[in-house]
Fold:
Amino acid sequence: MVKVKTQFVCSSCGANFAKWQGQCPSCGEWNTLTDDAATVAKYAPEAIAEDSKKFALGKAELSGKVLDYTNISDISPSDKKARLLTEFKDLNTVLGGGILQGSVNLLAGQPGIGKSTILMQICAEVAKKEKVLYVSGEESAGQVKMRAVRLGASGKNLSFASSTSANDIAKTIESGEFKLVIIDSIQTVAMNEISSAPGTPSQISQCGNLIIRAAKKSDTAVIIVGHVTKDGDLAGPKILEHLVDVVLNFEGDRYGGFKMIRAIKNRFGPTNEAAIFEMEEEGLKEVENPSAALLAERQNTDGSIILATVDGNRPLLVEIQALATKTSFGYPKRATSGFDLNRLNLLIAVLEQRTKLNLSDVDIFLNVVGGIKIKDSAADLAVCIAIASALTGRKLFEDYVVFGEVGLGGEIRSAFRPAQRIAEAKKLGFKHAIAPRTTKDPAGSKGFVLGVKDLRDTLIKYVNEK
Ligand code: TYD
Ligand code: MG
Structure:
């Protein structure tokens, strides 16, 4: 076999190449190929073969020692540790009762959604009792100060440092001087030992590792900011999500509307809770009663339906709006905001096939009010009724809410957490709920639930007020 002499090695993934290239074909990193002798020697096929020979099964003595194990009943659970409370009640619930001492949390969200804002607010609250450090690699001290003034954050316990060195940050965390350290953001920090640019996969995972080790050693709570790409993925490697204890997703509309924080991973708490916020002049505010806020500007026109949905553990009443207009160019247009377009197309097919509605020459637009994104399958029935109502110009009674999943046969299927949906609707003064027929009436309100089992019958019976 012809032996290819290795001349270049990727410092990010270790792949070998005979020629230099700008981008590593193996891992896709830019400017990582190097002919530095030490790096080439480390990743040379001979060196790797040598290593694997050394540790080949059966050949080497086991060099480890027997693990130092403990009976499970003698271990004190880590949730006995102190939790740092934020000023936001729902956010504390999302975190599992506050920020756990020694935990590493990742706050991921699009640029401009309010990550730096909420972290400054958290700092301000925690700094009333504990020492807090805010490290920023993105903004200057002056910029951060401006935000702090706006949010009313001050006090002798709240410190700021501007740094992009993961080594320095880790050393500071390790000193144990602070109870809480914020790192804004992981994409801007870099380790001296790695030559690739900040924000590259190797930098992010190695810096993450370094910071986590320091946090665990000194029992410091750390919150790391991570930017996400347009598709909602964390920019950089998924590996950071595996390394940290808690991953919080900050999502919603950047320009007005509601924003939500939910935990998509939590080693110390639930992952089905959500906290809802609104951006105001003085920072983010928790929305106490999101259903009422969402319904405040409602106008009961045709095509407007109130959906009783559940987000995580939280019931929510949201307005679904549909608009149906005549298609002016042969091919009908369907567009959505806050709802899955594929699901809309499927529901349109069901409506055409199972009811007598003709939708082949109408454009259909669907909007979920308030910047909310609906993933609940029980939104189906509300969407179908909204479309039927928009098309026929007939309304549903004003004090009705709707929920239920629609099957391909036009049958209405049950939804999860029906009791919570019903309770929220009743609390906000609604009189009836059109819901799958398995749904039970709330206590003391017989006849509240109008049970339905078929889409066509439902439309005929309830979409009728001109
Ligand atoms: P920011 O927290 O900097 O977003 P991120 O760190 O996620 O990139 O701020 C988001 C937006 O919020 C910014 O455009 C300005 C606005 N904002 C307010 O409306 N009120 C406020 O009190 C603050 C601090 C920011
Ligand atoms: Mg920011």
